[in-house]
Each structure stands twice: as structure tokens, then as C-alpha cells.
């Protein structure tokens, strides 16, 4: 499978726990995006990487959220001290440098904080 | 003002009807535009790119109006399988090349 893959697909965690999600983009894609989506809303931008550099972070990304892309390939998104409001679908997308090309999405990680 | 705005709907239309969605964007320097389709609890998937000259793919037609800063999607002869949420996507120019989504327009095609 040469698409974007995300792991895990589902995660249930207790409030206050830390969670980490992984995204493996399409191999030749140097741009990687993280989004959060709640029911009835479009994907909300969280952060963006060009290769290993994190170039932009949304105001939505509180201090409890951190993302990395250490070697410019896979990326991780960590949420510390989870809250119930963090329950959402976390989507990863990647694309090539040409901004006239579309982004390809992974199937997402659905987080439920109980 | 949001960077990308869409009417959330829902649009409930009978099979065979023609339906159109608009999406407005606030950054006049935005360079590329797309429509994505998202089925319930699935990831967004590209439906079509939107070119300056407009483009058509079967029953789907996309248009771009740079002067008024909106894009549109027209679906002719609606099918039950067209029921989904349609997301407008705008690529912002510049070094960061942020990809911004609208909230989506929900379409329900009724038998």
C-alpha cells in the first residue's frame, strides 16, 4: 500500500493520559499536515511540516500538543494530559512541493477520551 | 472571517436533481483550489481540482471566480451515491503553503 497510513486507527484513553499517533506519508511527499476533525465540522489545520521542519502551528495547538517529523519521513503527534475536548478524528495528509497538487489523506486516528 | 467558508447545509435533493454548492475564500492571493468528498467517518478524498477555466468531470462541474473569490461545484443528475459531505479546499501561497478546508456542505440525495 503506497498511500498515507496512520496508526492506530482508534484510541480510547482516560482523561489525563498521554497519547501518541503516527503518520507515514507517501514516500516522495515532502509536505505533511495534521488536522483535527470533530463531528459536523471540516478538518481544522493543526500543524505543517516541510521535510523535517515544522513551519506552522495553529493556535488550536495548545502546549499539550507536540508534533515531530525527525527524519523528514514519518511524523508523530503527541497529546499530553488528554482532556475530553480532545476527542476527535486526527487526520494526516501529505503532498509534493507543487502547490497545485492535491493532498492525500490517511484514514485518520479516532481518539476518544473518557 | 474564516479563510474558507461554505454553507453547511444539509442540502436534501431528490434523485436526478441538479445541485450547486459555493465556497468563498478570503485570501485573494490563494492559488489552487479543490473539491474533496468525505463520506461519514472516512477520510476526505479528492473529487476534482478547480481550474481557472473551469472543468468538468462527468456529472460534476467546478468553476472558479477569482474576482468574487469563490468556487462552485455543480452536480447534475444526482445519484443516491452522491450523498456525502463536500469540502472546499484552498491552497494558500507563500512559504508555508497552508492547505485550508471549509467546514463542508452536506448533501443528502433522497430516493
Chains forming the largest contact: A-B, 27 and 26 residues
Net shape of chain A: globular
State the secondary-structure class of chain A: mainly beta
* Count of beta strands of chain A: 11
Oligomer, anyone?
heterodimer
What proportion strand of chain B? over 45%
- N-to-C series of helices and strands of chain A: EEEEEEEEEEE
Low-confidence stretches of chain B: none
Average residue-wise pLDDT of chain A: 92
* Poorly predicted tracts of residues of chain A: none
Q: What is the C-alpha radius of gyration of chain A, as a whole number of Å?
A: 13 Å
Q: What series of H and E elements makes up the topology of chain B?
A: EEEEEEEEEEE
Number of helices in the DSSP assignment of chain A: 0
Helix content of chain A: under 10%
| Helical content class of chain B | under 10%
Structural class by sheet pairing and helices of chain B: mainly beta
Mean pLDDT of chain B: 91
> Biggest β-sheet of chain A: count, sense, barrel?
7 strands, mixed
Distance between the termini of chain A: 33 Å
Strand count, sense and barrel status of the largest sheet of chain B are: 6 strands, mixed
| Strand residue percentage of chain A | over 45%
Amino acid at each position: 500500500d503506497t498511500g498515507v497510513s496512520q496508526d492506530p486507527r482508534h484510541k480510547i484513553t482516560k482523561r489525563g493520559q498521554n497519547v501518541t499517533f503516527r503518520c507515514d506519508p507517501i514516500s516522495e511527499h515532502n509536505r505533511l499536515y495534521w488536522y483535527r476533525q470533530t463531528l459536523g465540522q471540516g478538518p481544522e489545520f493543526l500543524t505543517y511540516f516541510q521535510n523535517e521542519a515544522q513551519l506552522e502551528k495553529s493556535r488550536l495547538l495548545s502546549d499539550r500538543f507536540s508534533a515531530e517529523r525527525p527524519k523528514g519521513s514519518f511524523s508523530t503527534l503527541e497529546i499530553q494530559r488528554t482532556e475530553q475536548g480532545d476527542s476527535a478524528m486526527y487526520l494526516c495528509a501529505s503532498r509534493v512541493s507543487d502547490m497545485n497538487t492535491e493532498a492525500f489523506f490517511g484514514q485518520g486516528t479516532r481518539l476518544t477520551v473518557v | 472571517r474564516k479563510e474558507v467558508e461554505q454553507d453547511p447545509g444539509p442540502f436534501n435533493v431528490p434523485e436526478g436533481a441538479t445541485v450547486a454548492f459555493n465556497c468563498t475564500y478570503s485570501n485573494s492571493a490563494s492559488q489552487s483550489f479543490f473539491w474533496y468528498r468525505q463520506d461519514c467517518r472516512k477520510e476526505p478524498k479528492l473529487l476534482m481540482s478547480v481550474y481557472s477555466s473551469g472543468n468538468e468531470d462527468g456529472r460534476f462541474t467546478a468553476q472558479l471566480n477569482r474576482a468574487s473569490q469563490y468556487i462552485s461545484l455543480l452536480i447534475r443528475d444526482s445519484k443516491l451515491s452522491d450523498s456525502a459531505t463536500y469540502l472546499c479546499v484552498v491552497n494558500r501561497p507563500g512559504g508555508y503553503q497552508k492547505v485550508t478546508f471549509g467546514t463542508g456542505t452536506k448533501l443528502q440525495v433522497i430516493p
